[in-house]
Amino acid sequence: MKKIILGILAVALLSGCGSNLKLTPEPQKGQKKVFNNGNEVVVSSKRSSVLLSSLTPTYKSNTKPKIFIGLKNRTSKSFNFSTENVQAFVDGKPHKIYTYEELADEIETSKKWAAVGAALSGMGRSMSAANAGTTYHSGTYNSSSYNTYGTNSYSSGSYSGYSYNSAATQQARDASNAQTQADFKAIKDKEQASLNSINGVVRKTTISPNRFYSGTIVLESMENPKETHTLNMVVTLGNEKHNFILKNYQVK
């Protein structure tokens, strides 16, 4: 039970509030900065071309920053591209890049803990519903009476008991079941929305000559989010490396 409670709390904490951060690319020598719908895009052109932009120019510190990468194979040979072709360094230290499979596993784990929480809540409501039609009565009484001889006698005491209303119990059970079903539907809907959100994550793809490919790179959350960090993204295509610099800092 302790493990279950800790798991539920972990999910709740991860979905809590965080500070606002900004992730901005900074073009280096030989690179060009352009704009796409207001977003800054840095272009690195060598034998092949690579475009990089922040998909989350402003994001919460407790969420994962996302990077857009587009590339065009301008060589005469096909090559494979995946997250293995991309490295990330924060202030010179290696920084985790998530694969699609890792993100899908996180979504599945989150769904399972949410389902456990919903089930426990449903059990609590069911227990309350079972007692909804039961009412406890108690009180005291005093009485007096005359017998055939004209003598007055007194009596007093207390009473208690239960009454049961089956209609009230059924109504409470129906409401409990409806809420539990709604909770599980919300969990399912959230899972599907989360899976949809990672559809564009980079997965191993063969890029033919003169073809363009784009995808999303998802990074681990930044440590010490109140500090300014330098993010270095290295994209390797064969023997060719494209280096990008982005600044990550806190904003109001």
Q: Please report the number of helical segments.
A: 3
Coarse shape? elongated
**Helix content range:** 25-40%
User: Proportion of β residues?
Assistant: 35-45%
| Structural class label | alpha+beta
Strand arrangement within the widest β-sheet reads 5-1-16-15-8-9
Topology:
Layout: H1 2-14, E1 20-26, E2 31-36, E3 39-45, E4 49-54, E5 58-60, E6 66-72, E7 79-81, E8 86-90, E9 93-95, E10 97-98, H2 100-130, E11 134-146, E12 152-164, H3 166-197, E13 205-207, E14 212-219, E15 229-237, E16 240-251
Antiparallel strand pairs: 1-5, 1-16, 2-3, 3-4, 4-6, 6-14, 7-13, 8-9, 8-15, 10-14, 11-12, 15-16
Descriptive account of the structure:
The longest helix has 32 residues. Helix content is 30%, strand content 42%. Helix 1 crosses helix 2 and helix 2 packs antiparallel against helix 3. The strands form four sheets. It has a six-stranded antiparallel β-sheet with strand order 5-1-16-15-8-9, with no helix packed on it. With 252 residues, it is an alpha+beta fold. The chain is elongated and about 125 Å long. About 5% of the residues have low confidence.
Q: Short summary of the structure?
A:
It is built from three helices and 16 strands. The protein has helices spanning 2-14, 100-130, 166-197, and strands at residues 20-26, 31-36, 39-45, 49-54, 58-60, 66-72, 79-81, 86-90, 93-95, 97-98, 134-146, 152-164, 205-207, 212-219, 229-237, 240-251. β8 (86-90) and β9 (93-95) form a beta hairpin.
Looking at this protein, list some descriptive labels.
252 residues, 6-stranded antiparallel β-sheet, 30% helix, single chain, elongated, alpha+beta
